[in-house]
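Hey,
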Amino acid sequence: MVTLIDARAGRADAAGLRHPEKAGRPDTPRLPRPDWIRVRAPQSSEFKRTRDIVKAGGLHTVCEEAACPNMGECWSKRHATMMIMGAVCTRACAFCNVATGVPDALDANEPGKIARAVAELALEHVVITSVDRDDLADGGARHFAEVIAAIRAQTPRTTIEVLTPDFLRKDGALETVIAARPDVFNHNLETVPGLYLRIRPGARYFHSLRLLQRAKEIDPAVFTKSGIMVGLGETRDEVLQVMDDLRSADVDFLTIGQYLQPTPKHAEVKRFVPPDEFEALAVTARAKGFALVASSPLTRSSYHAGEDFARLKAVRMSAVGARS
């Protein structure tokens, strides 16, 4: 059976936390979803095994919390994107399905739990992301570093990709994460600058851009990566300008995916971008100099991350060989 996996509806939990509808956004209409957005419902035994490992470890995944449409495929391959520092975000972005409220204290045992799950899933490449933790002095940077260290200690051959918050007004946070030597540093711009006030009001476009640039300055060997959503009302020229901005920041890898409205309380989809336009954007991005581009309706930051990391390494080795 083929079915569309919809995001979960916003809800209040026992602690009184709510998803972003608490900001009082009115219900917004949904455009009918085209066939190219449809995905298979999860049914495999490997999907269930991944779910059991995550549940047994008391872990959170962005796959579940953000209602990712690719969860069935990824979990069936035992690929899960770990979300650290709890499941409650201090921000309420208009596109995001993660709960908003006052987070719990950090779990000092979480790095070990993550490392054990990575080992049990036999992951060759793992993506670690988090909620925004504006309540912490370092935005959770030290916790990221501890998770990286724990994984390295338990499965040293596993390559590690981090998808971090922007660490806005957290001096030294980025340096702490980069010092832990992740293989890929990812921070998503999410959308074009003209839509930040509506879509990502707690962030600043040029701060995020500078974060990516600074990561490469600190460690030129780290791969840098960023992603945007389309279908929120941006223009093609605005998307092309984001590409230019990211290349100016020496970002290696760009992801472009279709925005999907998690609930009627979130920002509406202005347009479903057809697959051929995604391919045209990929062609343009490659021409602008990105080492790797993933652009399709279902592309997400951590979708096929392991395969993409292998491709990034191959591109770099090829470039080094051409210069020698």
